[in-house]
Each structure stands twice: as structure tokens, then as C-alpha cells.
Amino acid sequence: MTMRPMVAAVTRSWPAAGRRTTEDTTTPGRGSRGALRRLKDRAVAYGLLFPAMAVFLVFFYIPAAYLAYIAFFHWGVLTSATKFVGLENFRRLIAQPLFLHSLWTSLYYTLVMIPATVLLALGIALVLREAVTARRGGLWRSAVFLPHVTPVVATSIIWVWIFNPQFGLANFVLTSLHLPALGWLGTTRWALPAVMIDSLWHSLGLYVIIFLAGLANVPRELVEVAQLDGARRRRVFRRIIWPLLSPTTFFVVILATVNSWQAFSQIYTMTGGPHGGAGGPAFSTTTDALLVYQTAFIYDHFSLAAAMALVLFMIILVLTLLQKWISNRVVFYR
To answer: Is the pTM of this model over 0.85?
Structure first.
């Protein structure tokens, strides 16, 4: 047999072989069993996700949607009748000086807390990474993270005693350094900085742990090569470590922004009672989140409080999108 008839015979047999292979792999019942298995896997996955999604749906999504609904109505807890007022609640907010003051206080609080949080958390993380031995590293990390897991109200009460103008530890340290004692929570100038100190102390441990996780992903080979080439620590940090930490820094900035705009517990606990009521003295520590609570549960204007909460949500959303836009230009992803 010549070569051409042999090639023709082989090529004629290919379709049949392909059909036989297809018929063998698609035996009756095998495709339906695969579909049933995939359906079972999806049912198990959705079943495992259902409890968490139900909690989010009941306690977050539905209340958030209803809050956005009552922001456009005149609504009260004790009255069943509701009246659609459109944007009237938002116009009342703009005309209210205390609301504008609370926005400015929240903005000031956030603009101070973000750089302070990033610089202090990154500095502590670098110290823990370089100076702490491996055997004692876990102990120091636990000590730094411990304030974050303590109850906010309990620690805030302790800080109230620390900032006591007569016998507090803060003024004792100042007078020991031959500095004048301060009124702290009793003065409009130092009340908000005192709250910021408490907030930094309480939240710093979380951001330190996040930065430590980011530093663990920095390749030591790059640092060692740069040091062998004669680069100093400052240059190594600026040229290698800091660019590689930009995703971690962006994440910390987002968390610090959201937590700062939602600051409530420390302010409510530290500025209440003998210091002129929550948000005092003279509304110097009244943030937007605190004003939402007071408007709803003290003055019983729930529709106005819902409008405030909606404005607060939009501000946080805009800031987050702005930071995301900036991160696309400055964040370095490997």
C-alpha cells in the first residue's frame, strides 16, 4: 500500500474515533449526576452563607434602607402618621448652625487623627520589627494590641480621671516637667485634643498589627542588597519599604477615616456628666455622629437625625471614593 491511501484511511477514521470518545464520556446519567453535584455544592455554600447574610440583612441593610426612607418624611416613634416633606429635613440641617459646627468638628477630628494614626502606628511597627527579639516579639505585640480589645467606655472613664485638673496624672506629668497645668476636659480648647489622645491610645494597636503584617511582606533581600550597596536606613525606608507599604497605608487610612467620622463612644463618655453634657463644653466636642444620637434620642427628631445620618454616610462615601481615586495613582501593587 502506498503512502497516500494509508493517510486517507487514517484520516477517515478520525471522526469515528472522535464520536466514540464523545459517546463514551457522555454515558446516560453521568451528566445529570454532575449537575446534581454542582447544585448540591451551591446549596451547601448558600446554606453556610445564609446565617451571616441574614444578620446583615436584618440588622444593617433593612434599617439603613428604612433610615433613608424616613429622612424624606416627618416621622416619629409614638405617632403612626407620616408626612412626606421631601428635602425639607435637609434644608433645616443647612440652616442649623450646630449641624455645620458638628461637621467642622468631625472634619478637624479626622484631619488630625489620620496622620497621627499613620505616623505613630508605622513608627511603633518599625520599632517592634527591628528592635524586639524574636523570643519577646509576641509579648510586645500583645501589649501593644491589648488597649484595642479593652472596652471603650471603661477605658474612657479611666482617661477622665487621668485628665482630672486637680489630681490627674496628665497634669502631674506637666507640672513635673515645669509646664503649666491644663483644664483638659473642662475647657473648650483642650477637650477635643484630650479625646483624641484617648482615641489614639485605644485604636493604635490595631493599626500597628496591620503595619506589622505589611512589613512582613517586604522582601528582606531587597533591603539587604540596598544596605550592601551603601544605602542608609532612611534611604532604604524611603525608596524600598515605604513604596511597598503603600497598599497597607491606604488600608489604614481608609479605616482611620471611617472610624474618625463615626467617633462617638469616647466623646459621649468623656465629655458627659460634670463637664457640661455630652459634646461639651460649649459644643466644642460635638461631632456629627454625636449630634445624630442627641437629635434622635434626646430631642425626639428622628427624621432630622435620619437626614443627618444620610449626610454622614454620603460624606464617608465621597471621602472613600476620593481616597480610592488617589490610591490608583500613588499606591504601588507588586
So the answer is: no
